[in-house]
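Lab notes, practical 5.
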Amino acid sequence: MKRNVNFFVSLFIAAVCFGCSGGQEQQAKYVFYFIGDGMGLSHISLTEAYLSAQEGKIGSTPLNFTQFPVLGLITTYAASNIITESSAAGTALSTGEKTTNSMLGVRPDSTFLRSVAYTIHDAGYAVGVVSSVSIDHATPAAFYASAYSRSDYYEIAQQLPQSGFAFFGGGGFIRPTGRNNDQPSVYESIIDAGYTIARGVGSYQLSKEGATKMFYTQAQGIEGDLPYAIDRTEDALTLPMVVEAAIDFLYDPKGKGFFLMAEGGKIDWAAHSNDAKTTIMEVLDFADAIALAIAFYQRHPHETLIVVASDHETGGLSLGYSGGYDLFFDFLEEQTVSIDADKSTTEAVRKSNRDAKIGWTSSSHTGVAVPVFAIGAGSSNFGGRMDNTDIPKKICAAMGVSFIQR
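Output from the prediction step:
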């Protein structure tokens, strides 16, 4: 799969945007909401510099979404802290309201909030939620669940089938049978709610016939996150595979349209581990998933909106470490496995990062603003400075759906 929009496609995008810039933008019928968890401008810049180095030159080879015509800046603070964590950020990005760190889909006073996905669903659109991490993790869960603690994984998972959303996909569940493995399986609840469960690579095509609601996840016995791109085997499910299936399932030429939230969740995990090579590979994998939305946009340019956002920056990543004006990507080339997959590589990876002159200031999140990129119907509203709570409201406005928070 080509990771970057080629010259012809770039001209096509520019022509479409130029054509709609002179008048009122058409209402968005198909909306892609991509969230790169932990992805800051530095993660993007590092990946683009890496691509240039792969071509044997100094520079910045653009990713497909960084060529979108609209660029904005998002503030990320939580109600309780200047530095957010993912459940508070996910709540802001899904409900349009701030909450306290570790709370999910509820206000600081513990009253429940309603995800924008429900508002869009109630307006007649098909809704999908997918992620490269477990589907009960903070960001994807923020679009269908409410919980006083993001760690209430079983209680969160049981809200998934109650949503009625058309498509879920990605990693499985952290605790599918409860904290003590003594509760009814959440998969039973999903089946009882009328979902078809497709497990493993290729299973979606075999399972979709006659299905009205779909959950596409990993093979039997595998739960949690999808493998890192750097650790991936040929039989592993990937975020691009899941996004491709979601588009196929949600698209109905006679329907009202669809809304798809897709999270690149392991950008954050790799950055938590201060693992530059793995982070780069995850950003590239995220771009591969976005490429599928761009292909859809090319077929429906006046009705499609693609928004690529981030919930926060992770790791305090810097292009430059301990002086000097160069990056040395050759030091990353020998790495073939993530730190998370093989802890014994930790010190070797740390050293390769330092030798490459890639710096980290934290193993957690930072409070810097993060980017948002947009293209298509209603995209002009995503330029400039905004708060993370503005994003879902702007999406509703682009779709012509009244934003109502109970």
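Observations recorded by the TA: The first strand starts at residue 30 and ends at 36. The radius of gyration is 20 Å.
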